[in-house]
Write a structure and sequence with these properties.
Blueprint: H1 2-28, E1 43-53, E2 57-60, E3 66-70, E4 73-83, E5 88-94, E6 97-105, E7 112-119, E8 122-128, E9 135-153, E10 157-162, E11 165-177, E12 182-192, E13 196-201, E14 204-211, E15 215-224
Antiparallel strand pairs: 1-4, 1-15, 2-14, 3-6, 4-5, 5-8, 6-7, 7-9, 8-9, 9-11, 10-13, 11-12, 12-15, 13-14
């Protein structure tokens, strides 16, 4: 009987030692591999239809009550984003448009001043919220540099020249991802843009400020590589 009890005790010791060894091995094992973010491409592109809504304001120096107005346009636009982390990204938007410049206020009778094409590349640094599943809102702020080209006067106006200008940009928007790669996007930007300008009216030089300050309202398709 004593031998049986000793055999049973030895068996329990062996089982306990085996369980302890297994537990120790589990504790000493390297942690399970986490998701490798580097395996996911940091690049993303969007193609949008973009509405450019300008602020109808401006002035001709020395003429009281003078004002300016500008045409609004809809254009295609491409943006390229790079994600430094899941939350932080930089976005560059590319597109070009034109604006008719019209005399307004006390000089409204002078009619159309001219037309200028704009290339306004805008770079923003964004924060993306990642706690809402497929719905991925973001906010951003950055800088815009607008090039004016192919400028021309109209009627009695000639030598229209709107200076290239740096401006600040604010942004809010969201992506709604349909799968790992494709999604829909809605985006709104405010550009603070007030360049100086000059033009000749029947040979008389005029100068002033063009207060464009446009809203850029876009909707389109997102693709994450």
């Amino acid at each position: 009987m004593i031998g049986k009890w000793m055999g049973l005790a030895a068996g329990l010791v062996l089982v306990g030692n085996g369980a302890f060894a297994a537990d120790l091995e589990e504790r000493m094992a390297p942690p399970e591999a986490t998701i490798d973010l580097a395996a996911h491409s940091p690049w993303q592109i969007r193609v949008r239809g973009l509405g450019i809504i300008t602020n109808d304001s401006g002035a001709v120096n020395g003429i009281a009550g003078s004002d300016l107005s500008y045409s609004d346009t809809v254009i295609p636009e491409l943006d390229i984003s790079y994600f430094f982390t899941d939350n932080i990204a930089a976005e560059l938007i590319l597109g070009t448009t034109y604006a008719h410049v019209d005399a307004a206020g006390s000089i409204a009778g002078l009619g159309r001043v001219g037309k200028a094409w704009l290339l306004p590349p805008t770079l923003t640094l964004q924060y993306h919220f990642t706690d809402f599943g497929a719905f991925k809102p973001y906010v951003g702020a950055g800088v815009n540099y607008t090039f004016f080209y192919n400028q021309s006067g109209s009627g009695d106006f000639s030598k229209l020249d709107i200076e290239n200008k740096v401006g600040a940009a604010l942004q809010v928007g969201f992506d709604y991802m349909l799968d790992d790669h494709w999604g829909m996007n809605f985006d709104v930007k405010k550009i603070f843009l007030e360049p100086k300008w000059k033009v000749d009216l029947n040979g008389t030089p005029l100068t002033g400020k063009v207060k464009l300050n446009p809203w850029l309202v876009g909707a389109g398709v997102t693709y994450r590589f």
